[in-house]
């Protein structure tokens, strides 16, 4: 029976740690000859990289933690996965995966011998190789740590509904200064030990950032303890006066980690078998503060150049100078080769590796086996069960739209709110998928009209509940929205999605911009993961922009920003889907599609305010499937006829205004031959670029079928910034476009005045349409002038009424759709 706390076992752990750290340090500099001292082969210039790239400072501390995590898995048979938050230091996951064999399983050419080790060294931070972070190229990784601040949010999402898993989440002390990380300490207030897994957070307190000390490093242990106890944690420490007494660190770490795991198991047993922590009592989850020096075990001083201090060179170990490449060694400058050789041989590689590059026999059984290896944990590769949701038939929740009621308000006001229509569908999904679907948000779920969901589930919340002041709050629930943090909601969703489950993050459109860089990072992850043959795909990440720019008349200018559309349109379209459904039925059909898509970011812009409904179930299905459609009942041109102009719209309010505009034109000039095109999937308009597998973009011929040849006038009502549509049409070589979108003008005002601010409204669109018809000699001057004068008088009336009475004019509020004159 193995004694996991014995001196002999901890010495084996120390050797494994030294082996991992040796490889992690060596691959920064060497592209071949990795075991130079073991094989007796002197290092030559051609063995070194010309431009060493990497981050040494965090590596030895993280390999230390990884080694101890392996020990915990072995001792407690605990399923666990590693998450490296400090950023960079990718070797801390690459090397352990190489030593336990999982890296070779993913990349068979990286064999566990001298030749394979040389290939691994060369590819690290090298053109055509692997990155310096814990990228999607790294077995076992589901968090890259490039943009800092999200490791605990991701870890929380990853362990929700996975009661057997523990996230071994390493937080960098520099990372701990970021806003998202600071707020994510509150994540434990949403983790239910009855049904969820656990996080074991480790604050990797190595003391320094790029060129500054960290705040926690200059904070006393007493104050750090107070800080974390105030947050609800039970802190414990790993530190030693002599930073080079490594065995003392191992012995202390073993004791601290054992107590932490045993405390987690006790918390879970109390919750699962005795019903504890279900009435407002929050467990005192352990957190470990590990003072592991930056650049630990590496070069201690810069003795070869520069200023001196106390007769020695400036410190490198335990200093910011260890952050990146600690020696100026390269194939072009071998002056510090002796220092490098002394550093590498200090790990005693001859006791760790055989001359053929294989690991010594006694160390091969240290790492866990099979799926118990953190690098091979299925959770980190698309999840244990990454199948799609069981979906109900969306048409069962659709509004009964027909020719008789399209463009009119339905009798039940709630049916005119697209998001409420969607909430009925989501409520049924919750019932069909009780442990694999969640909704996340920053305290906006009620505001965003997900009312029907609260009939079948609650908000998950572990703190005290005070009725009747609180509502729909429970220790168990499929909604987590009780922390006002977009970063948390997005991070939880990303962790949940990357581990094979499906969720939705709904937020006010303007404040979704708070996490646009997080969406960029997720895009980069799925983009890179798609290139790894061994990686499984993921459910798509679903975000809803609601409380949109043209519905923020009551909150004002700060709440008006549709720029997420532009932000995501700049990414590779293979991985981005942006939808602008114009009504409830189309929104349902879009989500039916989105939930079946894989490894995408689905961005859905949806209305929550009551307004007209437009499309039948059949029309909605076609719009969601094709992403774009000519709407015959809103068009006057027949097949084969020349078109005078095209009306098009994308989004809820633009569709109302564009349809109203063409209706106004048709009333006075029914001879105009126009086509109306509704655009639901924005990416369909974009032009194919290069050899990427861009399967959704329209061909030039298809684009022309909708918008006519270049020069055809197009009046386009758009939900976002106008230059996005302008750039798309420019790339298509299509002239004649007039866009009415958001023009960065707004205020607290009336519903329709918001549209007038940006000239999205029907009257401005109709003026442009009539001017186009007049310029192209389709209508006489007298009719055009009379029409435009009437539109302008109506806008003057609108201005006077809104400014004097604070209400919209009947020309807006009382308009309903009627059949066109054809």
TrEMBL record:
Ranges where the Xylulose 5-phosphate/Fructose 6-phosphate phosphoketolase C-terminal domain occurs: 608-817
Keywords: Lyase, Thiamine pyrophosphate
InterPro entries xrefs: THDP-binding (IPR029061), Transketo_C/PFOR_II (IPR009014), Xul5P/Fru6P_PKetolase (IPR005593), Xul5P/Fru6P_PKetolase_C (IPR018969), Xul5P/Fru6P_PKetolase_CS (IPR019790), Xul5P/Fru6P_PKetolase_N (IPR018970), Xul5P/Fru6P_PKetolase_ThDP_BS (IPR019789)
Record-annotated Xylulose 5-phosphate/Fructose 6-phosphate phosphoketolase N-terminal domain positions: 5-384
Gene Ontology annotations of biological process type: carbohydrate metabolic process
GO molecular function, one term: aldehyde-lyase activity
Required cofactor(s): thiamine diphosphate
Domain of life where this protein originates: Bacteria
Family, similarity comment: Belongs to the XFP family.
Record-given protein name: Putative phosphoketolase 2
């Amino acid at each position: 029976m193995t004694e996991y706390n014995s001196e002999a076992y901890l010495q084996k752990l120390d050797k494994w740690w030294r082996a991992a750290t040796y490889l992690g340090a060596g691959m920064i500099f060497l592209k071949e000859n990795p075991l130079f001292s073991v094989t007796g082969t002197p290092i030559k210039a051609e063995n070194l990289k010309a431009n060493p790239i990497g981050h040494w400072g965090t590596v030895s501390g993280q390999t230390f933690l990884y080694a101890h995590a392996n020990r915990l898995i072995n001792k407690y048979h605990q399923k666990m996965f590693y998450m490296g938050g400090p950023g960079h230091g990718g070797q801390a996951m690459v090397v352990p995966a190489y030593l336990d064999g999982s890296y070779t399983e993913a990349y068979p050419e990286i064999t566990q011998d001298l030749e394979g080790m040389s290939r691994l060294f060369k590819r690290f931070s090298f053109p055509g190789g692997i990155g310096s972070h814990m990228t999607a190229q790294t077995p076992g990784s589901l968090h890259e740590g490039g943009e800092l601040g999200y490791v605990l949010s991701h870890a929380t999402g990853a362990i929700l509904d996975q009661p057997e898993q523990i996230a071994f989440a390493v937080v960098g002390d520099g990372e701990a200064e970021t806003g998202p990380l600071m707020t994510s300490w509150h994540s434990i207030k949403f983790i239910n030990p009855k049904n969820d897994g656990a996080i074991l957070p480790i604050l990797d307190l190595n003391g320094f950032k790029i060129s500054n000390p960290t705040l926690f490093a200059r904070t006393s242990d007493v104050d750090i303890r107070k800080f974390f106890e105030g947050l609800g944690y039970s802190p414990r420490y790993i530190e030693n006066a002599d930073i080079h007494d490594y065995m003392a660190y191992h012995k202390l770490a073993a004791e601290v980690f054992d107590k932490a795991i045993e405390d987690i198991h006790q918390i879970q047993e109390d919750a699962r078998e005795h019903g504890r922590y279900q009435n407002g009592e929050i467990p005192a989850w352990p957190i470990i503060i590990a003072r592991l020096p930056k650049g630990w075990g590496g070069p201690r001083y810069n003795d070869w150049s520069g200023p001196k201090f106390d007769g020695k060179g400036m410190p490198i170990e335990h200093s910011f100078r260890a952050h990146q490449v600690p020696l100026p060694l390269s194939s072009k400058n071998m002056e510090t080769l002796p220092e490098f050789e002394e550093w590498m041989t200090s790990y005693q590689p001859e006791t760790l590796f055989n001359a053929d590059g294989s690991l010594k026999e006694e160390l091969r059984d240290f790492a866990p086996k099979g799926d118990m290896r953190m690098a091979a944990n299925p959770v980190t590769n698309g999840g244990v069960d990454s199948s799609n949701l069981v979906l109900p038939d969306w048409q069962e929740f659709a509004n009964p739209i027909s020719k008789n009621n399209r463009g009119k308000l339905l009798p039940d006001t709630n049916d005119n709110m697209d998001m409420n229509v969607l909430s009925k569908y989501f409520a049924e999904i919750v019932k069909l998928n009780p442990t694999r679907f969640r909704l996340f948000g920053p305290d906006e779920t009620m505001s965003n009209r997900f009312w029907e969901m609260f009939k079948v589930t609650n908000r998950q919340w572990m703190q005290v509940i005070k009725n009747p002041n609180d509502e729909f709050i429970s220790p168990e629930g499929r909604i987590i929205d009780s922390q006002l943090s977009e970063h948390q909601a997005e991070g939880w969703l990303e962790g949940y999605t990357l581990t094979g489950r499906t969720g939705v993050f709904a937020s006010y459109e303007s404040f979704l911009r708070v996490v646009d860089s997080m969406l960029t990072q997720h895009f980069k992850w799925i983009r890179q993961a798609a290139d790894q043959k061994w990686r499984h795909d993921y459910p798509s990440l679903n975000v809803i922009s609601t409380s949109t720019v043209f519905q923020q008349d009551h909150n004002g200018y700060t709440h008006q920003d549709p720029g997420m559309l532009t932000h995501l349109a700049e990414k590779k379209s293979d991985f981005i889907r942006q939808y602008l459904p114009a009504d409830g039925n189309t929104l349902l059909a879009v989500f039916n599609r989105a939930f079946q898509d894989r490894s995408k970011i689905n961005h859905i812009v949806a209305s929550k305010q009551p307004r007209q409904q437009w499309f039948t179930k059949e029309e909605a299905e076609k719009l969601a499937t094709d992403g774009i459609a000519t709407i015959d009942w809103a068009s006057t041109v027949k097949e084969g006829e020349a078109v005078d102009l095209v009306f098009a719209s994308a989004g809820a309010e633009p569709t109302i205004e564009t349809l109203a505009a063409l209706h106004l034109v048709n009333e006075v000039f029914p001879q105009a031959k126009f086509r109306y095109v509704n655009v639901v999937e924005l990416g369909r308009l974009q032009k194919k670029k290069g050899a990427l597998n861009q399967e959704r973009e329209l061909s030039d011929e298809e684009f022309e079928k909708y918008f006519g040849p270049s020069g055809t006038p197009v009046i386009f009502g758009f939900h976002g910034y106008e230059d996005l549509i302008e750039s798309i049409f420019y790339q298509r070589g299509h002239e004649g476009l007039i866009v009415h979108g958001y023009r960065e003008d707004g205020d607290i005002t009336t519903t329709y005045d918001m549209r007038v601010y940006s000239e999205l409204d029907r009257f401005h669109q109709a003026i442009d349409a009539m001017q186009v018809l007049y310029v192209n000699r389709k209508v006489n001057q007298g009719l055009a002038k009379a029409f435009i004068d009437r539109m302008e008088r109506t806008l003057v009336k609108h201005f006077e009424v809104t400014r004097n009475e604070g209400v919209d004019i009947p020309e807006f509020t009382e308009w309903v759709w009627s059949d066109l004159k054809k």
